[in-house]
Design brief:
Layout (H helix, E strand, L loop, with lengths): L1 H8 L10 H18 L7 E4 L6 H8 L3 E6 L2 H13 L5 E4 L13 E6 L10 H14 E10 L3 H7 L7 E3 L2 E9 L5 E12 L2 E12 L3 H11 L3 E5 L1 H4 L5 E5 L1
Parallel strand pairs: 1-2, 1-4, 2-3, 4-5
Antiparallel strand pairs: 5-11, 6-7, 7-8, 8-9, 10-11
Length: 248
């Protein structure tokens, strides 16, 4: 489901942002600071295992990091390659499910990142553990896994049915959330509306997420082999979602 969702979203993903290039630069600054604080040098090897169309990968490459990127969505990879070429950045891109990273990436990495709430596409404990073990296996000794997720600890309190519409120039984006009964899983319908000559073109794509609480993710990370997990809230990191750093 995630592959189809992001294949369909790839050409419109940048419309989520008011200014995608500005967001690339801002997120790059945050990640540069966090990686440097963890002792990750620009010459070290980094993998973005859910790169999408390249928001964080492009940012880190532009700052001089040695970064490789993969994603489950082939259309997103195609878009990311184009965006890297436009910016004259030399990045290796691969299509890969994060539950099977070792089948694509034979090297070990000093750091692996997965931003923008990618992990919660893995609905079951089994799926999530598979991905976390692959990430653990793909890290160098003492490597780190840095990822971000929505603040589901707070979201669980209200279980919202939608996000607020975001209007930017001639574009509106919003999401509808349908929670499964007695479950922390919700179906997501993502809408993009683009105004053309006074009328609105609407596109929709569907996916599913699991609203993992931080304690749930901590247990799964420890089960996968990680020895320690640190959480950073937006007011601490400057990133728009909570960030976790898991240590091998």
């Amino acid at each position: 489901m995630a592959e189809k969702f992001y294949d369909e979203l790839a050409e419109e993903y940048h419309l989520i942002f008011e200014d995608w290039d500005r967001s690339i630069a801002r997120q790059g600054g945050v990640l540069d600071y966090l990686l440097s604080a963890e002792g990750i040098k620009k010459s070290f090897s980094i993998l973005d295992c859910s790169c999408g169309i390249g928001t964080q990968t492009l940012a880190l490459a532009k700052k001089g990091y040695n970064i490789t990127a993969s994603d489950i969505s082939g259309k997103s990879i195609e878009r990311a390659i184009r965006e890297a070429e436009l910016r004259h950045l030399n990045i290796q891109f691969f299509q890969a499910d994060m539950r099977a990273l070792s089948s694509v990436h034979s090297d070990s990495f000093h750091a692996i990142i997965s931003m923008d709430n990618a992990l919660p596409h893995l609905i079951t404990d089994k799926e999530c553990i598979e991905a976390l073990k692959e990430i653990y296996f793909s890290l160098c000794q003492k490597g780190i896994f840095l990822f971000s997720v929505r603040n589901y600890d707070d979201i669980h309190k209200e279980r919202p049915s939608s996000t607020l519409p975001a209007r930017r120039n001639n574009t509106i984006t919003f999401q509808l959330w349908d929670w499964l009964q007695n479950s922390d899983v919700y179906d997501l319908r993502h809408f993009t509306m683009v105004e053309k000559d006074g009328t609105w073109d609407v596109s929709e794509r569907i996916s599913q997420y699991r609203a993992y609480k931080r304690e749930d993710l901590k247990k799964l990370l420890l089960e996968a082999g990680f020895r320690q997990i640190k959480w950073l809230h937006p007011e601490e990191s400057g990133f728009y979602q909570p960030i976790a750093i898991a240590y091998k």
